Write the structure tokens for this entry.
Amino acid sequence: MAEEKNYVVRGIVIGGAAGVLLSFTGYVDMARAAALGMIGGFAAGITLAKRRQGK
């Protein structure tokens, strides 16, 4: 269970950082980009944790 949290937290941080980098392009404001990146990172972290758990 502890490893699953690690993947989720890592996904949220990386997703938020990617969202902030996207906001520098000017297409979307920073708060919205960071939030959307964190949501995507959360989903990616959950998916990765479930895939690793199955092995």
DSSP finds two helices and no strands in the chain. The radius of gyration is 13 Å. The chain has a mean pLDDT of 89.
